[in-house]
Amino acid sequence: MFERIREDVRCVFDRDPAARSTFDVLTTYPGIHAILMHRFSHWLWSNGLKWLARVFSNIARWYTGIEIHPGATIGRRFFIDHGMGVVIGETTEIGDDCTLYHGVTLGGTSWDKGKRHPTLGSNVVIGAGAKVLGPVFIEDGVRIGSNAVVLKNVSSGMTVVGVPGRLVSAPQELDEKRQAIAKKMGFDAYGATRDMPDPVATAVNGILDHIHVMDQRLEDMCKGLKDLGAEVSDLNLPDLGPCALKHVDNREIETALDEPEKPAE
């Protein structure tokens, strides 16, 4: 019991840079208060003292603003940052090293008894305001973005964003080429949108792919005309202001991918 308490306190220093001392964490962190009080109420629940467990969990809810049903099973090194408005239902199961932020709901979608709340694997992070509803399984290493609504199982290592929740994979090599083309064109919006299911970003991605293919074809045509003896001048496209469309070839893309980014002045 005491070893688990020490683990719960130590994990705060790994996940919250604002933590200063053990005394500070034990006396001012509602997330720690909630999990310590839940450990006791869950012990009461498991030993058949269900009414007393509910009373104690209600005291914890009143004191911390965090509602954890005493029947919920929570693993080691669990951390709730800020905490206000967090709700964890009765049949919720949470693995080790998980982190929840304020406003998170691990709730049910049915009034039927039995398993009706989520199961979280290990090392899961759920952002502020997110809702995970129903007896879904969130596998190890999943990241759920702020205000996302998750109603289906999520595979290990995935990221979920949006309403309803959409899976987001890691950037592919194609995305890196798009960034290089966008950088040459003077367009710089992909740092914030490349991993998001944004229809505007998706449309611009398609435009960049199309421009790249057309540019390659024009290069091939000009080379063929030169081989036939035609005089073809090497001219860049006209300047269009902040989105200047400059000539881009494969060598420039490779150079852009290899060059380290320069810090902004």
Which structural category fits the helices and strands?
alpha/beta
At the first level of CATH, the class of the largest domain is Mainly Beta
* Alpha-carbon Rg, integer: 26 Å
Number of helices: 8
What would you call the quaternary organization? single chain
- The H-and-E topology, N to C, reads as HHHHEEEEEEEEEEEEEEEHHHH
Strand element count: 15
Please give the alpha-carbon distance between the first and last residues. 53 Å
User: Looking at the structure, what is the overall shape?
Assistant: elongated
Instruction: Characterize the biggest β-sheet.
Output: 6 strands, mixed
Low-confidence stretches: 187-195, 239-248
Strand order of the biggest β-sheet: 3-6-9-12-14-15
Average pLDDT over all residues = 79
Walkthrough of the structure:
There is one protein chain. The chain is of the alpha/beta class and 265 residues long. The protein folds into 2 domains: 167 residues, UDP N-Acetylglucosamine Acyltransferase, domain 1 (3 Solenoid); 86 residues, no CATH class. 41% of the residues lie in helices and 13% in strands. It is built from 8 helices and 15 strands. The strands form 3 sheets. The protein has a 6-stranded mixed β-sheet. About 7% of the residues have low confidence.
